[in-house]
Amino acid sequence: MVTLDLRSDIARGYMLLGVFYLHMLFAMLKTVPDPASATAALLQVKLLAGHVSVFFFLSGMGARGLGRRRFDTVAVQSIMLVALAALSHVGGFVLNALIYGPPETLRDIFRALVRPVVYGTGYSTFVAWFFIVLAAVRPLAYLFEYSKLRFAILAAGIVLLIQLAHVMHFPGNLYEWRNWPYALFFFIVGMRIPRNQDVPAWLGLSGLSISLAAAWFNGPDLLNDGLCWTCNADFLPFPIVGSEGFVPLVVAQEIAFLPFLLWASQLRLIPQLPQIAQWFGKASIQFLLLHGWLIAAFYPALVRLFPFPPGPVPYLLTLALNPIVHAAAFLMLRPMLDRSLAWCFSFSRWSVQLVTSSLGSRGRIAAS
Prior knowledge:
Blueprint: H1 4-30, H2 39-48, H3 54-61, H4 71-100, H5 106-113, H6 115-119, H7 128-146, H8 148-167, H9 180-191, H10 201-217, H11 222-225, H12 247-266, H13 272-282, H14 284-305, H15 313-367
Helix pairs in contact: 1-2, 1-3, 1-12, 1-13, 1-14, 1-15, 3-9, 4-7, 4-14, 4-15, 7-8, 7-9, 10-12, 14-15
C-alpha cells in the first residue's frame, strides 16, 4: 500500500512534468501559421490542458484538518503565495526585459510591471496565476470547514465586489477570480480523499477513459448540438468561469482524471519513474517558480526562431529533454530558489505578526 503523502508527491511530480510538456506544446502551436495543421499538438492540448487544475486536488490532499488550524497560520501560507506570485512576475519581467528589451516608455513599464501585482492578473509568467488562486482558495476552504454560514456570507460579498469591479470597468479577472469556484471545489474534494486506500486499476483506467471523453465532447453549445465527434475539436475545456463549456462535463473531466493520476502514482513497473517524479514533486513550489522564469526567458525565442518539424520527433525530444533541462537548472539555482521561498515565508510571517500585534494593541487600548 502506498500512503497518500507519498502518492501526492509522486502525483505532483507527474503533473509538473506534464506542465513542462504542455507549455512546449503551446510553443509548437505558435510556430505554425495555422494551428490546425499541427493536429497532434492541438489534440494533446485539448485533452491535457485542463488537468493543470488537478494541482488543487493535490493541494487539498495536503490540507486535511484545515478548519481546525489557527487562522493566522492559514493567512501566513496565503500571503506567502501572494508574495511568491509577485516574485515570479517580477523575475519574469526582468528576465524578459534583459533578453528581449524593456518596454519603450515608463508608462509601458509601469503597466507591465506594477499593474499585474495590483490587479492580481496579467503576469509575465505562466505560473503566477496558480499561486494567486491557491492563496485565495486556502482561506476560503478554511472558512467553509469552520463555518458554512460565514462562508456563505463571504461568498455573497465576493460576488458583489466582482459585480462592482465590472461596473467600474476593472479587469474582468481580478486576482484570477474566474478560477476560484472550480479550484475551491477541487481543493475541498482533495481534503476528503482517504489517506491509506489504494486506487484499483479498474477505477484508474475508467477515470482516464471518462476524462478523455468528457474533454473531447465538451463545448459551449453542447446542449444545442448534442454529442458530436467533430463539433468541438478546437474548443479547450478549462475549469475557469466563462471557458468551461458544459459545466458537468468539465467537472467530470477533472474528478475522473484524479483517480487515474493516483493509480498511476502507485505503479512500480519502472521503479525509476516514480522516483524521478517524487524528486520533482517534493520541490514542486521551487520548480514552479523556476519554470515560470524559464518560460519568460526562453518562450519568446522558441516561438520566434524556428518551426518545429512534423512527425513524432519533437514530441519525443520534448518528453526526454524537458525534465533534464529543468533538473539541471534546478540544481544550479537551488540555493537562490530556496532563499526566494524562505524570503516569501519571512515576509508573510512578518506581515501577519504586524497585523496581529497592531490589533492586539488596539484591543488593549480600548479595554483600558
